[in-house]
Amino acid sequence: MDVDGSGFTDLLQQAQQLTADIDGEGELLRVERNLRQIVDAGQQLWSRTTQAASKDACDIKASILLGSKGYDLPKISQKLESLSTARTFEPIEPIRETDIQTFEKADNVFWETLESEWEQEKLKILNSLVGPSYELLDVTTDAKTYLSETINLKTRSAMDSIEMAYAKELSLYNEQAIRGSTKCNLPEKFYAVFKDLDDKKVMELWEMTKFMTDIPLKVDKDVLAARSSLLIQTSLIKQARTYLEKKYFEYIQAIVYGNLQQAQLGPRPGAYYIIRSFLKMKMPVPPAGLEDGLIDGNPVWAVIYYCLRCGKIDAAVTACKNAGDSLREFIPFLVEYEENEGTRLKPNSESQINLQYRRTVRSSTDSFKRATYCVLGCVHGDSIPEVMDKTDDYLWLKLCLLRPEETEAGTLLLKDKLTFASLQSQLLEEYGETYFNAYQQPFLYFQVLFLTAQFEAAIEFLFRMESLRCHAVHVAIVLYELNLLALPLNSQAPLLSKVSTDKPPMRRLNLSHLITVYTKKFEVTDPREALQYFYILRDLKSSRGINLFMACVSELVLETKEHEMLLGKIEPDGCRKPGAIDKFLTDTQAIIEIVATDSENKGLYEDAIKLYDLAKKHDKVIEILNKLLSQVVPQMNVEGSNRQRLENLALTIAERYKTQGHTASPETAGTFFLLLDLMAFFNYYHKNQHIEALDRIKSLQLLPFDVQEVEQKVTAFSTYSEEVRRNFPDVLLATMNILYSEYKKTKKSMSINPDQRYLNENISQEKYIAYLRAQASALITFAGMIPYRMPGDTNARLVQIEVLMI
Questions:
Q1: Which one, 369, 428, 529, 594, has the greatest CB density within 10 A?
Q2: Which of 36-45, 58-67, 341-350, 598-607 has the lowest mean pLDDT?
Q3: Whole-number Å distance between alpha carbons of 80 and 348
Q4: Rg of the Cα atoms in the chain
Q5: Nearest to residue 455, comparing CAs of 206, 212, 166, 186?
Q6: How far is residue 583's CA from residue 568's CA, in Å, rounded to a whole number?
Q7: Neighbours of 384 (CB within 10 A)
């Protein structure tokens, strides 16, 4: 018991010691927990202990079990840990069938698409050069980009044979306009050019232009109002249809006459028999699903449709009559359609055809029958790809369905009805260049736009292509001359613009920009031809309010420097020799003045002098010469310098004006001749011909050479122009240097070279030196009294020279 008691006593003492240590002076943190927290902490400790114990117990049991069977548990564990399921469950890549042809096809399509997109981007970049411009003629494309480096611009033309042919016909057209005679048919002339060249694509372009411009015009309205009128729209639609029908019939004829043996045309002429022979070749075996029998071995509805497609309605009537009783009820509709010149049926008849189509024909398996009913009944919304497989066929059908008179009258209310404007928008904006593969088929896309009277957009598209640019320009000229081209209100507008007040999808084409960009290629080598194109713009106004012909001529002269060839020149007798612009019978004087003004504004003062002289604006000639001469008067006359060139020009003009007279004001002319005298003075001075220089400056009576003359010369100083006064400092310094030079010579030599006022007088060396000093003193006094702020060192240098003469 004592032992146990001592043991508890020791424990008690140790506990008290721990309590004392905890409650002592040490700053130890104490953690206080409530009973709940203590229970939770105990349970967590217990669970960890049991889990570790249970795992060890499981491992021991597993080792005993497997060991009794001869298995080594540690080795098995290592093998299991080294196993990986990654490869077992990895997705297996399917082995695709090798298709080299498909791969190459896809690869080719990819590269073609990439190249096409790049070509379009390049064209957009090039087209941006003809986009919005703040200067009408500020076309940054350098003429060198069109010409080889080896071309001699003075002897060779930058125009190719096609451009020259166009320019020749345009020149003849302008000559007729200048004479006031009846103008030639410009589209016909251009068509004849390419007929001789046997260029079928361009021939078709001009044939299309001939058709679309052969319409009744009302010149009392503006272009947009006329193009929107019922008469013009009806005519445009009719002409477009007629062109497509004519071209298709020519195509059928070419097929038939090229294969007469297979076509079995027979001796009887006529459209009906040609179409019949064409169908025998196209459909030697009639396809299944056709209705209402055959005519001469051809499906009846196919014959009728192709007759309508070729515009041969009389042949369609003949085919319908030959079909017998099966089409007896359809004959009156075709006859009525023929009587209305193939434009449309009467509203009642059209409604009957439309009703029959919707009831029975729509479900027919005969695509030609459905197409025929669509054309006569004006059925919208149904596509017939079996028949309308070409762009021309699609466009022809759409044109057949247009009813501009209903649009005009406001009766076209149904949503499924097609209007001319909606067709234009669909082709230009919805389908556009991508759908028609325009860059690969430019003539096709041009045709689509042009035949739907979207002339401006068609021309702008064609103009983007360098090889077709000349055709676009001349189509635009033809339309402009016929008052069919919509122009922007501002000459600085982009090449193709859209105005919010215009009916969509109307566009406007900047003709002036079109022509100036086109002529930029050859205006340096062929300025006379460029004038022919600029003459087309004579009735248009620039942003400055002058006519564009004059503005373009001005720019042409500034660009080519061909003043004499274009504007003429002044002969020695004072008469003007005519230039290239005189043939246009315009206000030549006004054109020359505009060119002169533009030259002056651009800082080309010497060109402006010659041009003002050509325009007999003598006051401006002398005014500019005075400004230029005043800047070079004191300079040395070096060979090839600006001073020498200006002096020679001024002397030539001065001599002519003295002998033949001039219209300049006396003050301006007086300044001019005075500056020439001062230049002569400095010429003597720089050649060290001091006596001649001193005589010249004294004869001008600008400076006082006696003290008594000072006040008079100071008073006269204010009467001189600024061009003269700015040279007084140099004149004073040069004169003082001459006097000092004479002073030094006199001091060194006993021989006196006397001044003219002392001729025939015996004077001493001292008197002559005193005379020179008196002159220098008068000049110093004059320099200090004149109301002019001279350069800072002028007075100091003058005084210094005077001091050297004391």
A1: 369
A2: 58-67
A3: 93
A4: 50
A5: 212
A6: 12
A7: 18
What is the rounded distance in angstroms from the CA atom of residue 362 to the CA atom of residue 358?
Answer: 6
Mind listing the pLDDT tens digit for each residue in 441-482?
A: 999 999 999 999 999 999 999 999 999 999 999 999 999 999
pLDDT at position 342, please? 67
457 and 343 belong to one structural domain: no
Instruction: Check whether 757 has a pLDDT greater than 60.
Output: no
Total domains, the chain: 3
Examine residue 271 and state whether it is found in any structural domain, yes or no. yes
Is residue 397 domain-shared with residue 428, that is, in the same domain? no
- pLDDT tens per residue, range 32-79: 677 777 888 888 887 776 666 666 677 777 777 777 666 776 777 777
Q: What is the pLDDT of residue 59?
A: 72
Reported as half-sphere exposure (CB side, CA atoms, 13 A), residue 706 has a value of 6
Angle (deg, nearest 10), helices 618-632 and 605-614? 150
* Whether residue 732 is found in the same domain as residue 772: yes
In terms of Cβ atoms closer than 10 Å to its own Cβ (0-12, 13-18, 19+), residue 751 is exposed
Confidence band for 103, pLDDT divided at 50, 70 and 90: confident
Average pLDDT of 623-637?
95
Give the H/E segment covering residue 352: helix 347-359
Q: Helix 511-519 and helix 527-535: axis angle, to 10°?
A: 170
Same domain, 234 and 220: no
Q: For residue 202, give the amino acid letter.
A: V
Could you list the residue range(s) of the whole structural domain that residue 447 is in? 161-227+424-522
* Angstrom distance (rounded) from CA 592 to CA 571: 16
Report the C-alpha gap between 616 and 619 in whole angstroms: 9
Which residues does 334 contact at the CB level (< 8 Å), separation at least 6? 304, 313, 316, 317, 320, 376
- pLDDT tens digit sequence for 501-522: 898 899 999 999 999 999 999 9
Give a yes or no: residue 627 inside a domain.
Answer: no
C-alpha–C-alpha distance, residues 562 and 531, integer Å: 12
Query: Which of 501, 522, 543 is the endpoint of a domain?
Result: 522
The verdict on 297 and 374 lying in the same domain is yes
* Whole-number pLDDT of residue 52: 61
Dihedral of CA atoms 125, 127, 133, 137 in degrees, nearest 10, equals 120
Q: What is the distance of C-alpha 222 from the center of its chain?
A: 26
Contact yes or no for 281/262 (Cβ under 8 A): yes
Residue that terminates a domain, selected from 494, 522, 550: 522
E-assigned strand segments in 294-337: 294-295, 298-299
pLDDT level of residue 113 (50, 70, 90 thresholds):
confident
| H or E, element range at 367 | helix 367-377
pLDDT at 760: 40
91: helix, strand or coil: coil
724 in Cβ contact with 675 (< 8 Å) = yes
Nearest residue to 337 (alpha-carbon basis) of 356, 369, 312 = 312
Alpha helices in 129-229 (DSSP H): 161-179, 186-197, 200-213, 223-228
Residue 790 domain-assigned?
A: yes
What's the Cα-to-Cα distance from 314 to each of 337, 339, 480, rounded to whole Å?
10, 10, 37
Residues 255 and 311 in one domain: yes
- For the whole model, what pTM was predicted? 0.74
Tell me whether residue 206 is exposed, middle or buried, using C-beta atoms within 10 angstroms of its C-beta: 0 to 12, 13 to 18, 19 or more.
buried
The DSSP 8-state label assigned to residue 121 in this structure reads: H
Task: Please indicate, yes or no, whether residues 316 and 369 belong to a single structural domain of this protein.
Answer: yes
> Do 319 and 400 share a domain, yes or no?
yes
Nearest to 146 by CA among 521, 530, 524: 521
pLDDT category, 93, cuts 50, 70, 90?
low
* Within-domain flag for 666: no
Give the mean model confidence (pLDDT) for residues 12-33.
Answer: 65
Q: Angle of helix 200-213 relative to helix 230-258, nearest 10 degrees?
A: 150
Measured CA to CA, the distance from residue 132 to residue 438 in angstroms comes to: 24
Q: What are the tens digits of pLDDT across the range 264-300?
A: 777 677 899 999 999 989 888 888 888 888 998 899 9
